[in-house]
Write a structure and sequence with these properties.
Length: 330
Amino acid sequence: MSAKIAEAEEHIRKAEKALKTSFLKRSPDYDTAGDAYSRAANSYKVGGDKPKALDCLEKACDCYKEMRSLFQAARMLEQASLIARDMNKLDKVVDYGERGALLYRQDGANESGAQLLEKAAKIVESTQPGNAVGLYLKAAETVTVEERPREYGEYISKAARLQVRAQKFDDAVGTLRKAIEIQTTLDSNNAGAGRNVAGLVMVQLMREDAIAASKVYAQHGAYCDGDTSPALRAILAAFDEEDGDAAKEALNSSAIKNLDIDFARLAKKIKVPTSDLEAAAAQLGAQRAAASEAAEAKKVVEESKALEKEDTPAPPPPAPAQEDDDDDLC
């Protein structure tokens, strides 16, 4: 047994002793027990026993909650989220992040709660973008529009990009609108608003709603920078004129490639328009191919029937008719 593990177990004994009651000690000493469990968790972590470290942090959190030391209880869960990350228990990371943030909020430390939610979201966003979206939205709710509008807009924007990554385009439309709505009210955040406007245009095109994309640009396009704005106008004009080649060229422009990565990736997936002649040619080609396949199938059937006919043996000749021997009867 390593020295750190032995040290952790000694701290646990102190914690358990502090929680015991007797005739002379009517109530548990939660404060002492919480500190002892916290020290035990640190010793277990250093000693390499992370599951026991998590257990001790949970117990320390419970002790501090009994003392109404909510800020300290939240810190225990924040430490637990980092250990869970090291153990690759991402569901635990989400759980500890949400519970810890709630305790911070109850203690009035909204900024600490939002930061914990953001940390948890960054840990899980590459593998669990759906859970990360929820964490960012809760972070936005924690700071609230009235108190910290800038941070609110940033958290909402991060949630929207993850919704795009998860291909939840309908959800992303609503989230991006919220981000743009708040960012356009801030004097010094026009760049963030412009990036989200460009992202919303790309999302609407991905949803095959070019009209909605044009309305977005008409309403908020002024917030886009000098490179992005002409590129978006070229894309929307190509869609309006149903010019597929021009649309492909505009979507492949450097300005679109320089958008936030989740928006830029949509350029390769957006369905570009096709002209009426191209559509008619494609339809005629499909009809000819179908007719050719049908003719070939008919030919195969006829050849098969002919072969079957050749292989069928001819019927035997009919037997000669028997003549009546009338002479013998006379």
